[in-house]
Structures are given as C-alpha cells and as structure tokens.
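Troubleshooting entry. The earlier prediction with DLL gave an output that would not parse, so I re-checked the input for stray whitespace and re-submitted. Clean input:
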Amino acid sequence: MIWAKEETMSRSEIEELQLARLKAVVARVYGKVPAYRAKMDAAGVRPEHIRTLKDLKLLPFTVKKDLRDHYPFGMFAVPKSELVRIHASSGTTGKPTVVGYTRNDLKVWTEVVTRIAAMGGASANDVAQICFGYGMFTGALGLHFGLENLGAAVCPTSSGNTQKQIMYMKDFETTLLVATPSYALHIAEVALGMGIDPKKDLKVKVGLFGGEGMTEPMRQEMYRLWGEDMAVTQNYGMSELIGPGVSGECLELCGMHVNEDHFIPEIIDPVTEEVLPPGEKGELVITCLTKEALPMIRYRTRDISRLMYEPCKCGRTTVRMENLSGRSDDMLIIRGVNVFPTQIEEVLLSIPEIGPHYEIIVDRKNHLDTMEIKVELTDDTLLDSYAQLGALEKNIRSRLKVVLGLDAAIKLVAPRSLKRFEGKAKRVTDLRQM
Ligand code: DLL
C-alpha cells in the first residue's frame, strides 16, 4: 500500500518542494546554530547562495565529530524547552551522539516510518512485535509510533528474553516482526530449539528488518527459517537523521525508497568529497529538510550505497538507495586489499553446509596482516569426518580468494557455538587497533 501522495510525485514536483524546504532550513540553521554559521562563513556560503538544488554542493559537510564537539545540544536549532524527546546513539568510543525532537519532528518521524511499514507489507490488521531494544536507541520507538499510526496492534516486547518473545509470538498470533536481521535469525533458531517451527507454528508473515545490513543470502536464510511466504524487507535510518524512516524497501525488493520530501540524498567520493553522478557507488550524504530540533545539513553517513532514479514497479517515484555494501569505516584494509564484511558474508552464505553466523578476526603477525574467519557448520555430523571438514574448508577458502583476492584462515566450528546478538551484530574484531 502507498501511504502518502508525496511518494508518487513527479520529479519536478519533488524537486520544487525540496528546493523550497532546503532554502528554509539553510536560512534557519544559519540564523540559529552558531556552529553551522561558522562553517558556512568559512566556506564563503550564505543562505541566499542556495538558488537551485545544484547549489546544495556549495554547503559544507556535517560529520559526527561536529555533534561530539558540541555535545550534548550545541547543534540544536531550537531551545531545550521546545524538545519533547531525546535519544542518543552510543557508538563505541567517547561520548554518545545526542539527538532531539520537537513535537512536529515526532509527527514527521511517525509519518515516514508509517510509509516504510506500509511499503514493507504492514497493515492495520497486523499484530506487530517490536524486538528492538527500547531505550535510547531510535529503532524501537521509531517503529512503534509508525506501526501504531498505521493501525497495527503494537507489542513492545523489546529485545532479549527470547523464549518469552516466542511465547508471546505464539499466544498473540503475532503477524509482524520488527528486529535486526541477526536477531530475527536467532529468534527462529531458539524457536526450533523449543520444538516450535516458525514456518508452521507461528503466524509471522511480515518482517521489517533494519538497524544493520541484510545481504541477499541472509534474506534467503530468512525465507528458509520463517517461510517462503514471509514479506522480508529492510529499512534504513540513522539517529542523527531521524532514526528509522529515511528509506525502506517496497515489496519489489529493488532498493530502499528514500522519503525525498524530508531527506535529500547525495553520493560522494569519500576521498575527494566530489558529488558522484546518479548510479555511481560511494558514500551516502543526507540533508534533512524538515527537522526542527536537529536539522543535519549534508551529513556524511559513512554508509556506502548507490542511488537509482529509474521508476519502480510499485508505482512510487522516489529515488531508491541500493542496499548498503557496508560503511566506509567498516572497510578493512588487509595487506593493502579493501575488504567489506558484507562481501565475506555473501560468499559464506552461498555455501549450504555453513550457517549465517560468523566472526572475522583480523590481526598482525610479524608485520603481516592476517584474517581468520570462524564459521558455524549447519550440521554437526560433519565434525566427525576429518576429510569432509578439510574439503569444506578448502572450498570456502578458495571461493573467498576469488572474491576478495586474499587468503583467509578458515575455522569451522560446531553449530550454535558462536555468540548470538539481540541487537546489532558485531562480526569483526580487529586486533590491530587494540
Ligand atoms: O540503526 C536507525 C534504525 C533503526 C534504522 C531501526 C532502521 C531500523 P543508528 O543506531 O544511529 O540508527 O545506526 C545507524 O546503522 O549508519 C548504518 O550503518 C546502520 N544501518 C541502519 N539500517 C541499516 C540497513 C539506526 N538497513 C547505522 N542496512 C547506519 C545497513 C543499516 N545498515
């Protein structure tokens, strides 16, 4: 179902709306946020220089460090008294990134999440279980209000306590699951261990996944565990930009539709910072057009994607983002070769004898980078056959070598022996940085 008329506007209508909103937001941050004004003055740009959408590239980028340097509220464009919600993203080091919402920001957030839920097959008839952690993470409350707005019955079960999740799922006849893809796989695995087959014994028919990437082989794994008839989509967002709701996949599964009346996406070369032509892959940069409390201007997401402007079969006219190939700061450089964990995942998941759980350990020994990949077998009877294990290991190693151009040590481990995640999965340990 297409929720809003803004999803089907003509290109010229979208651009006209974007330009009017861009001019207004740039004037507002210039007037209200000293940090933006200082950056724009240093770049020699003033709000009146924004005459067409092409002028967007005159504006300086905003980066995570700007938010950290002005922690907690220094980048906000409204006084604290106008805030009605505060979230934060923890990150791995230093202070968290703090984000805030006015009453109108919450309205916009609810609207954009409602759109992506409807896009992914959700409806007012769903019983929606939200298995994201409730708290400072934007995922849970973001999906919560969007799904309620759609009319679904929302169960805020949060993450963790997986057996209880499954009990609710069965007893409430939950039809829609919200989770990170890795947690959704874990829930299915725990259910099977409890003698409950998600395909037959549960009624979940819509999976709205996000917060981390879902590669195509991972989607296949989702169908295998939850049922071929499940609508499996993913959606994208980021705390700094709003939370979930920036973009989402429709049921055609050909990229994530950006809510372009609220966000302008650009793709840049992360090194030269040049804007790349449509269709080229690079770092995603987003400008928030309607946020009142924290309007991010040309925010460098570090996420790697591509923009597709061709019309989609679903009828929406909004630009689509290709599913992410990773983050520029996830990229590992191993013996000079650039490696994205998603490339490794795609190879691993194309091999039937191994499951979707893996761990990548990078180290440096005698000045040489090493990479070890621990992979779980799907069937532990293989562990008894030394010859079969050896052949499988060799097969994985040579397939990875073709894709990555690198040799990796493979360690096959017993089913269910690697760590499971209830939120975003952590697959890489880089011991070189420790
Ligand atoms: O993860 C917001 C969100 C919650 C989106 C739930 C969708 C669903 P942060 O915690 O700030 O916000 O993390 C943002 O997560 O820059 C991406 O690297 C990653 N990410 C989010 N969605 C996807 C996705 C939320 N569909 C960071 N595919 C982003 C790949 C994703 N990565």
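This one parsed fine. The longest strand covers residues 354-365.
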